[in-house]
Request: fold
Amino acid sequence: MSNNTVRFAALIAWMSVLPMFAHAGDDWRVRSTSLAADYWFGVETDDTSLALNRFTVLADTRIDMPGRWQFDGALRLEYADASTGLGSRDTYSSLSRPAVSGDARVEIDRAVVTWRRRGTVLTLGKQAIAWGVLDGIQVTDRYAATRRRDAVLSPQRPERLTRWGARLKFRGGDWRWDLAVTPDDTAGQFANPGDTFFPQAPRLRGGIPPGAALPPLTVRRSGEATWGVRTERTLGNGDLGFVAIHGPDTEPVFELDGANVAVTYRERTLIGATWQHTSGERVWRMEAAYIDAQPVNAVQAGVPVVVETGRWLAGAGLDWRTANGVFINAQVGADYLTDASDILVRRELDVLTTLRAHKDFANDTLRISTEWLQSLTDGDMIVRPSLAWQATDRVSVSAGYDWIDGDPNGLLGQFEAASRVWLRFTLDF
Reply:
């Protein structure tokens, strides 16, 4: 029996056996268990070929333990046989890597024990850390590794990966503190070569032109831990925060590695600030961050190289629930490199805007939504209308259209051929 099969069986058994321990003593109690199944199907609009065929099962257990401790565990079982795939595995650390059996995978989504007392919270285990106040645009929210197998078309954005580590939250005077350290060097996840959302634009391929044959790719993780600190306080109707993060970058660079190309996650340090302000039905959000030595790909004499440059990130957003019940979320983000060298494979400045809107009908059982992403620097855009129906408390059905338009070398337009219509079913047991 292969190691993958053994790991696959062990992970399945883990969630089944764990609740039994909740009955080992009077101080143990199962707080909740849940099981959800999700099927996502889609076809490309160009030729109606199968674009998406993914089945996901999520199992979740919460257990109260002695001494103010609580356990929270979740497993993810996925199956896919279409070209969108399930994404890479070699960017994971050996401890976090999903187990594989055929076309199916099992991944520990969450496995944490938490201790709480008088506003102090200590969390140990496999967890995702979300920092920042914007929704989907990553400025200071760059602690967690992310899943990018579906580019920007994932159900949540960013889709954070959980990693093994520790987190401590507490109050000190008027400030709220959040400290984290993550020895797990899982670097993120991207599409495999040949998958629908494997990068096509040279800026995401180390300068290698679209359609050019790729040399063998290897992943080179830093082996270093990620650590960070975030502090926040309330001022009037707003919250002011500061954040510092050091560790492997969430964006890789490409480097020559003999006859291969190494996908490398180098270290970097980010310093940032956040502000959010509530005014009636509106919430205003702002973020800014600076990275002193951001690794960026360049091409010199036809060879991929890596240079380090200063990088500014900034974003602003608005959440607004209008009088007629329409919820609007509008954001703009800017990404600026201080080195304007013409050997860089990406633009000196990227500006991306997002606009989301939704409205509920029929006693909140129907929701009409739309999302519009626009790159102001190269004209690329994505428009994503959708309709969701909550058929019962346990069953929901949604359908939508992801229309992508732009330059084949652009940040969004590189996936123009991946425009698709889709249908999704979710069942909560």
